[in-house]
Design goal:
alpha+beta, Phenylalanyl-tRNA Synthetase, Chain B, domain 1, 2 strands
Amino acid sequence: MDSSTNVLGGPLQSCSEEPLTGWFRDGCCNTDENDRGSHTVCCVLNDAFLQFAKHQGNDLITPAPEFQFPGLKDGDSWCVCARTWLAAVNAGQACPVDLEATHRRALEVIPFDVLETHAV
């Protein structure tokens, strides 16, 4: 696993324990080489982003109990794929991000100034 450092250079903070998020379902946006989607951006979800993701084929709204996925709603925090979040930015549908809980590997896809513009 990559060292747990956030985009600000400090220790990675928890994104959400309720619902439990993360590539490893550890509450943090930790990642490793198997996380091809780079689930590294800690988002505070809103309806615009959830609808955008659903239209892109990533339904985050509908529960999938077989994957321990509760379904998400406006106001939930969740580790989102960096490319999905950046696509939402480009479409004007981005949700806010928690920089202290966003893994530094997100910077491989998203420029820091773009993240900073959308910080909570």
